[in-house]
Structure formats: C-alpha cells, structure tokens
Amino acid sequence: MNTDTLAGAATDFGGKAKEALGTATGDKSLKSEGVADQLGGTVQKTVGQAKDVVEDNIRPLVDYVRQFSKERPFTAAAVAGVLGIALINTLRGK
After folding, report:
1. How far, in Å, CA of 34 to CA of 46, rounded?
2. Please, is 14 exposed, middle or buried when counting C-beta atoms within 10 Å of its C-beta (0-12, 13-18, 19+)?
3. What is the mean predicted confidence (pLDDT) over 22-38?
4. Is 54 helix (H, G, I), strand (E, B) or coil?
5. Phi, psi for 24 (deg, rounded to 5)
6. Per-residue pLDDT tens for 2-24?
7. Distance (Å, rounded) from C-alpha 17 to C-alpha 12?
8. Measured between alpha carbons, how far is 8 from 2 in angstroms, rounded to an integer?
9. 85 Cβ contact partners less than 8 Å away, ≥ 6 residues apart
10. In a 3-state reduction of DSSP, which class is residue 51?
C-alpha cells in the first residue's frame, strides 16, 4: 500500500462525511462537495492500486532483464535486434 492509496482512502472518507453532513443539514452544496471528494478519493485509490500492481508484477521482470543483459550482453543484443526487426515488420504490415 502506498501513499496514493492511503490519501485516496482518507479523501473518500472525508467525502462521505461531508455528504452525510450535507444531507443531515440540507446543504446541497456541501453534499455535492462530498460526492466530488469521494470520486477524487476513489480515483486516487485506483492510481495507488495500479502503482502497487506495477511494482509487484513488472518490477521483477525488469530486474530479470537487466540481470540477463549484464550476464549475457551479446545474447541480449541479439534478442533485442530480433525483437526490433519483428516490431518494425509488424508496424510495416509484413
């Protein structure tokens, strides 16, 4: 869990409190602010969760590729060349 997830949860909670207070007092403006804060908090939580997924899943793959390229530089260069040619041919429609 990172700071975006925590801050998003706090913003979401604050938005729920504002909405409840706005509903209780009949203040439509405060209620609308609460709903908007909830939306912003949900978006921020989602961004935080996406960062966690990238960190947990993509980072080990990147570390593996770096280690592989340090241990076998010529093989890594050959693989990169083949992948580059394949990508160029794919983009060209061949």
Report:
1. 18
2. middle
3. 93
4. helix
5. -65, -35
6. 888 899 999 999 999 999 999 99
7. 9
8. 10
9. none
10. helix
